[in-house]
Specification:
This protein has 13 helices and 17 strands. The chain is of the alpha/beta class and 422 residues long. Strands 4-12-11-10-7-5-6 form a seven-stranded mixed beta sheet, with helices on both faces. A hairpin with a 5-residue loop joins strand 8 and strand 9. It starts with 10 loop residues before the first helix and ends with a helix.
């Protein structure tokens, strides 16, 4: 099967989908004053109503090559046949039962995720922020169960992004996002990334664990060094702390490995996932060892929608694709090819971009001009990208892209840079 193969929905499923969107499309092309204005969208921004593989199509028919992937979410591109089929089939059976009852798809996905990782247990949530909230709770509960209720603080890192809840905002410590929401949630100590001496200094009698993104996404594709992660593991082992990885953005094939930690040779005690795990369907998870999760007993944590049958059908379908022999190797090789081509862009346009960051298909261009200008210039050429910290333009293409898509995208970036130079 081609990575970008099409699929015709079963008759009943197709009718269901068409009925679901039978409301007037006229309002879809205009901005709604009823939407809370928390996003910086404008009336000239594109509105998409169809996707196919690595492409998105606007309501007026314009095609874009999607190297943003909904901020590293649509890992298998748009309307992937395996995922579409799984979702439609499950939608015709049952959508929701709640976690009061067993959910077979949930049990299957948990077994598969743990079998392919360090973990013994999986908990399913609705988002990455919820997965991080659960991770934070687990770290604190672990220390409580081990007779150290005073240990509740978690060391985190400057430039991180862990979500938009009050606790995850506090964990990241970005004042821009914290401003106006009252006192910062207590319990987090930020230090500089890749500074092991600073981590050692921050460890105290109230420290419960360390939370880190192996590669920061929002922070500007800033990667931890292998030595730094190995040092964190050693510090946690020495001081009885839990090591938590946030792989919401860098996990699930994004780096060319199923999980980013597998490329570092460093194993965490707990790991948060989301984004690519659902290939566009909203759900997240956190995985943990039996030892780390021993305090997470019945009633200590829960979710009404987390692990619902629809999400589990999608998650199992995503794994079906990602665990196909050669899939991750393809993502890694295509990512290497894209990175090489981006390096040529840097050489050709030094007044616009100055460096390439990242690995696999989690890449970034460090811009000389304002990154927003480069994002806009790429969009004008028909390429979707997304900004990041440290004036970086993020490229998080679907894992199913091929060399022809790399060539197409590089041509667009080349033209965008030429116009910015002019």
């Amino acid at each position: 099967m081609s990575l970008n193969a099409k699929i015709d929905s079963p008759p009943v499923g197709k009718a269901m989908l068409e009925a679901s969107f039978s409301f007037s499309d006229a309002g879809a092309t205009r901005m709604s004053s009823a939407i809370m204005p928390t996003y910086g969208r404008g009336p000239t921004d594109p509105a998409f109503d169809r996707g196919e593989g690595p492409y998105l199509f606007t309501t007026d028919g314009k095609r874009y090559l999607d190297f943003a992937s909904g901020i590293a979410v649509t890992s298998l591109g748009h309307a992937h046949p395996v995922v579409v089929k799984a979702l439609i089939e499950q939608a015709q059976k049952v959508w929701h039962t709640s976690n009061l009852f067993r959910i077979p798809g949930q049990e299957k996905l948990a077994e598969r995720l743990t079998a392919n990782s360090f973990a013994d247990y999986a908990f399913f949530s609705n988002s990455g922020a919820e997965a991080l909230e659960g991770t934070i709770k687990l770290v604190r509960k672990y220390q409580y169960e081990n007779g150290h209720p005073e240990r509740y603080r978690i060391i985190t890192f400057e430039g991180a992004f862990h979500g938009r809840t009050l606790a995850t905002l506090a964990a990241a410590g970005n004042e821009k996002y914290l401003k106006g929401f009252g006192p910062k949630v207590d319990g987090f100590d930020q230090v500089a990334l890749n500074d092991l001496a600073a981590v050692k200094k921050a460890i105290g009698p109230e420290t419960a664990g360390i939370l880190v993104e192996p590669i920061q996404g929002e922070g500007g594709i800033r990667a931890c060094t292998p030595e730094f992660l190995k040092g964190l593991r050693a510090l946690c082992d020495e001081h009885g702390l839990l090591l938590a990885f946030d792989e919401v953005q860098c996990g699930m094939g994004r780096t060319g490995k199923l999980f980013a930690y597998q490329g570092y040779g460093v194993t965490p005690d707990v790991m948060a996932l989301a984004k690519s795990i659902g290939a566009g369907f909203p759900f997240g998870a956190f995985l943990a060892t039996k030892e780390a999760a021993k305090g997470m007993t019945a009633g200590t944590h829960g979710s009404t929608y987390g692990g619902n049958p629809l999400a589990m059908a999608v998650g199992n379908a995503v794994l079906d694709v990602m665990l196909t022999p050669g899939f991750l190797e393809h993502a890694q090789q295509t990512g290497s090819h894209l990175k090489q081509q981006l390096a040529m862009i840097v050489d050709k346009h030094p007044k616009v971009v100055k460096a390439v960051r990242g690995t696999g298909l989690m890449l970034g261009l460090e811009a000389v001009v304002e990154n927003t200008k480069l994002v806009e210039a790429c969009r004008a050429e028909g390429l979707l990208t997304v900004g990041g910290g440290e004036n970086v333009v993020r490229l998080a293409a679907p894992l199913i892209i091929e060399d022809k898509h790399v060539s197409e995208g590089i041509g667009m970036i080349d033209r965008a840079c030429s116009k910015l130079e002019g």
